[in-house]
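During the practical work, I worked with a single protein chain and the tokens that describe its fold, as given directly below.
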Amino acid sequence: MSATTATDTGSNRNCTAAGVTNPEYPGKPGCLFGPPLPIPNPNSPATSTCVVNRVTTSASGNGNCNDGSVALLNIPLGSDIYLTGPTDGVVPCPRCTGTPSTCTAGPNAGQPCTPVGTPSATSPTSHDCPPAAGAFIGTLPIPFALSTGSQSKTSTDLPAQPFVFCGFCGQQFSPSFQGPPAKACTADSQCTTAPFTKCRQRTSGAFAQGPARTVSETGSPGGACLSDGAMHDTTLVSVFCIPPAFNATVDAAGDLPSPGAVALPGQSQFIP
């Protein structure tokens, strides 16, 4: 499998190549991956963020056209973080709502838009309604490696911390980590730059579950020969590590670094 460009698909919003120009986000290239993602924080509205995902390395991988399975699809992302909470609270991404639909906030407030997502308190959103450029605080590298099979991570007990899924070199008694860029590790011996000599994540466990031992996701293949050219329901999954953002507000609100997991239901189609 190889990447599709905006020319192939007709849009920068449903392709999988790096380097594609995004007029919605000047200076931030790479096909857009999904709509803007609101991450509200009801306990601390000022730390709510809006995340825009871009493809930073063109997608590549392999699959089986006979049953629609995907053994591996590498599609590294850059997650652009916009700290919009101070102005927009728990509705961190501008919404695209109404009849006809218009942007509720941001630089395109009042302009027409095409909504994406199920209506809720924080959605639908749209790249027609980008967050304010001035709210951008940094980009997290996300190593997406998707498949239609099963993926999992198992935590280990390290000297500085038990239940570690995603180790990064940091300080033992402070949520401070080496970088940027962050340095991933699996043992203290890999952390040789003082004072970041302990391999750990921000807090033990995963997803606010301190004694968590395993994170698992299970996908589903198309289940049919894709050479028929038809669309087939497929779920791609990935379990991965999220590095620190090196922004104290974002790292505290997102509990970073930490593990991440995703299941992406959709449809697959063979395009010769």
